[in-house]
Amino acid sequence: MMTMQLFYSPGSPFARKVRVLARERGLLDVLQETALSPHDDAPELLAANPLGKVPALRTRDTTLFDSPLICEYLDMLGGSPRLVPPDGPARIAALRAQALGDGLMDAAVASVLELRRPEAMQSTHWLRRWRAVIERGVTTLAHEAPPSGFGIGAISIVCALAYLDFRFPDIAWRAGQPSLAAWLDDVSARESMAATRPTA
What is the pLDDT of residues 142-185, one digit of tens each? Predict the structure, then answer.
């Protein structure tokens, strides 16, 4: 099997989602992980993703970007059972859960970037809207049963909630959602999660 190169940032929850899936699928022997900052516009990242974002995957034949696409591609390389169901209601449920997790990550990452701007330039309007998105998303997760197993939906949700713990401990979502917090702690003990904890 060919060797691929994954560009990622250690703090990116989207890149973590891909790295978790790669470990769950046993692909580390054909996947070279290269850590970098997307803010540096590294030439190798821009060559792999003209949008300048992580994660980005270079294969023998092409480059792929956007975490759902990369996860779908990597999942096809492993054996059965797939972490992204190929069809039917199970696929729709998994993709819906992934979309919810990704949406939480979108709002959280946007908030982080906004808070890094000089305080006088920060938009309180957007920070409030993103916080509301996060709160509604967490509430929705708490009222729905967690995805069964550890497929793409669960991976996305876990990476999103762990990112909130990492970047926004002040949100304190765990206090109001103890069952969801317990589920997160349980699945976070997996080797793939422990090996990809954010560091920056």
Answer: 999 888 889 999 999 999 999 999 999 999 999 999 999 999 99
For residues 20 and 47, the answer to whether their CB atoms sit within 8 Å is no
Pick the closest to residue 138 from 188, 100, 187 (CA basis). 100
Residue found under tokens 């992204």: 84
Angle CA(19)–CA(129)–CA(151) in degrees, nearest 5?
25
Torsion sign (Cα): 182, 23, 145, 175: positive
Alpha-carbon gap, residue 129 to 117, rounded angstroms: 17
User: Which pTM was predicted?
Assistant: 0.95
Letter string b/e over residues 107-128, b meaning 16 or more CB atoms within 10 A of that residue's CB: bbbebeeeeeeeeeeeeeeeee
Contacts of 31 (CB under 8 A, 6+ apart): 3, 4, 5, 6, 22, 74
> Edge-to-edge strands of the sheet including 56-58?
31-35, 4-8, 56-58, 63-65
Residues 6 or more apart in contact with residue 14 via CB below 8 angstroms: 54, 55, 67, 102, 105, 109, 159
